[in-house]
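Retro notes, item 3 of 5
We never archived the inputs for the iron/sulfur cluster complex last cycle. Fixing that now. Sequence and ligand:
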Amino acid sequence: MNANQTLKTNHSVNADHSSKSNSSSNAAHTLKAPYALTAELTHRCPLHCAYCSNPLELQKRENELGTADWLRVLDEAAELGVAHVHFTGGEPLLRQDLEQLVRRARELGLFVNMITSGVGLTRERVRRLAEAGVDSMQLSVQASDGELSDRIAGIKSHELKRRAAEWIKAEGIPLQANAVLHRHNLHQVEEIIDLCVSWGAERLELANVQYYGWAFANREYLLPSLEQLQAAEAAYMRSKARLGGVIELIWIVPDYYAEYPKPCMGGWASISFTVTPDGRALPCTAAAGIETLRFDSVKERSLGWIWQESEAFTAFRGEDWMPEPCRSCDRRHQDFGGCRCQAYLLTGDARNADPVCALSPDHWRLADFVASRGASARSRAAGGENDPAITAEGDRDPPVARMRGY
Ligand code: SF4
Ligand code: SF4
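Structure as it came back at the time:
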């Protein structure tokens, strides 16, 4: 399970991170140490989620960093000031050196979270990960019932997840969960929350799908209707009131329906970064899609240099790079102009304002797509067909099936 859908929120920095001067052209910007590293150990995954934000071109096993490289990355990350590491993928359990990496990260004093589909986990593997020192495990949840869950995952996996949750709890490891929400499971928000409570999860991220990688290719299949989103948000609010204190619930906003963009990653290369399976360091998990940037590899450069000096990391730090309308907008300190990856995907230029923004001259690109999706759902309903936006029936198979990447 990749963390991509759940990490584009505004992380709060709770470490005392030292300031360094940024040698980029944006000299006035004060550079802090990164708080979190997302270590994408592999793109291989037994699941086929249509909303996966891994790139369409998945890295093959033979291109993955070896154990020694990852150990060095962890050493350099700790030296740089990183406090929190997320081991993710793909499915990180497919790496046989996972326990070794967890152990090293703990020795370095990092908080270690592991994000998994639960598929491939055994009782013995959970015990070994606990011994290695994993601090928390985050299980992906596709739906509240086995039939829909297995359909979304593309393989039978719901029962394996239930067992994984049981073993994680039995080993005393704090359990978290994440559910990517889209047209085919939004009607189950309340049931998904109850399921996670019954599994003993302490925290659940309800992440409305973000359209990168496979999710972008499948966005027509995944985009919910406004009515469906409103009903789901109301269900989330009801559950929050009902379950206050039992489980921490995080709602990650559906930005295709927002007026202003999210403060993506808390600002470009400002709080955290990702290392991909083949060793490229990215300011955000989806950034590899920006073909106009060069992303340096940890095989050739130190993490410190990449964070402080590299072209990709310095490209959009601060505000000097911003064109209008962001340059003179009062909200620029709040949302940093939105998401660079989304700006690139939808306009072809990563410097543009995120088209989610109603003030962006490119907003029509997104608004037209949302409107046409709504119109096609309405015409289906008028023709007597089920509207998947409302009933979660029909459109059962995503047009682009995510490969396993083996
Ligand atoms: S296919 Fe699903 S489980 Fe696998 S990496 Fe992608 S989102 Fe995560
Ligand atoms: S114009 Fe730019 S800074 Fe202003 S709200 Fe829109 S994206 Fe944010």
